[in-house]
Amino acid sequence: MKIHEYRCELSWAGSTGKGYRAYDRTHQVRMPPAKAELDMASDPSFLGDPALPNPEQLLTAAATSCHMLSFLALAAREGLDVVAYRDEALGRMPVSSQSMETILLKPRVTIAGAVEEGQFRRLMHEAHETCFIARSLRSEITVEPELEVLPARS
After folding, report:
1. If you count Cβ atoms within 10 Å of the first and of the last residue's Cβ in the chain, which end, N or C, has fewer?
2. Type and span of the H or E element at 81
3. Which residues of 81-116 are buried (b: 16+ CB within 10 A; e: fewer)?
4. Phi, psi (5° rounding) for residue 111?
């Protein structure tokens, strides 16, 4: 069986010797072979730097990115010309639950040329069903898509 593997390298240095409120939550994450390095922190609610991304944001970003990539692949296979895709996703983690309970995806998709609303909705559903991230999470993921149709490009 072929297995895909995904490496991440995380590094942090500091001291927790002065207690929970005193240590720096800033850390670095690399994902080889990509050369980019992310400076990250915990959520500001957990004393992290609000100017840096946190793991909860990255989980939400992974869900929307995976959904988009799944949708684009399905649309391309059906010959649709998707010319724009935007999403303003929202992950919600109630303080009492300590887990990401819901992720709301609100993709706004622009397609050039003929597409029926039913086909669009079917592809959105299939994208959710085939998204590796969505299939890996316990969180409820809701998708509220909107479609804009432009004339076919010549």
Report:
1. N
2. strand 81-86
3. ebeebebebebebeeeeeebeebbbebebebbeebe
4. -120, 130
pLDDT tens digits along 82-113: 999 999 999 999 988 889 999 999 999 999 99
The tokens describing 1, both together, are 């069986």
Mean pLDDT of 9-24: 93
Predicted TM-score of the model (pTM):
0.91
Place of tokens 């059906």: 78
CA angle 25, 28, 29 (to 5 degrees): 125
| CA 21 – CA 19 distance, rounded (Å) | 6
Residue 154 has pLDDT above 80, yes or no: no
**Cα-atom radius of gyration of the chain, to the nearest Å?**
19
Fill in the DSSP letter of residue 151.
Answer: P
- Amino acid at residue number 111: I
